[in-house]
Amino acid sequence: MREGETRVKEQFTVCSADQLREMEPVSIEHRGIPYCLIKTGEDLHAFVAVCSHKDLPMFPPHCRKGRLICPHHKVTFDAQTGAIARTHGKSVPNGLIPVLIEVRDGMVLLEARARHRKMLSRKQRRKVEKRSRKLAKKEENA
Ligand code: FES
């Protein structure tokens, strides 16, 4: 397996379940793929944060009134199901792709799939990695 490749299925740790706040999406980058984790009530939901309008990363997405908002052209998705909520007249073929979640010993794990990598171009994955590093640096300095 080459560096940067994802196995067919691969679990990775995101954070402690206690850290999650209601309706505050957490953006995660794993091998260049953006994921979004959100807590609604007692439930956790996770999606591949790629908007099918223009196949662009939603990194980070915003959340308002129970909807995840794509930062590019403001298409919204239901935060619980990932279904398209409002398109603002844009052509959006699919909702957000759900990701399996497991909570083990209080830690939240997501299941990356090899097919998630195919949702973004190499160039876009590099941009996501770069943006992720910038956000991490910003958090360190805060
Ligand atoms: S890429 Fe998401 S709304 Fe256009």
Write out the CATH superfamily name. Answer: Rieske [2Fe-2S] iron-sulphur domain
**Can you summarize the main beta sheet?**
4 strands, antiparallel
Number of helices: 2
Order of helices and strands: EEEEEEEEEEEEEHH
Give every kind of bound small molecule, once each: FE2/S2 (inorganic) cluster
As an assembly, this protein is single chain
- Gross CATH architecture: 3-layer Sandwich
CATH top-level class:
Mainly Beta
Please state the structural category: alpha+beta
Strand order of the largest sheet: 2-3-4-11
Approximate shape:
globular
CATH topology category name: Rieske Iron-sulfur Protein
Helix content: 10-25%
The parts where pLDDT drops under 50 for at least 5 residues are: none
Evaluate the radius of gyration: 14 Å
Ends: how far apart?
Answer: 37 Å
Total tally of structural domains: 1
- β-sheet strand percentage: 35-45%
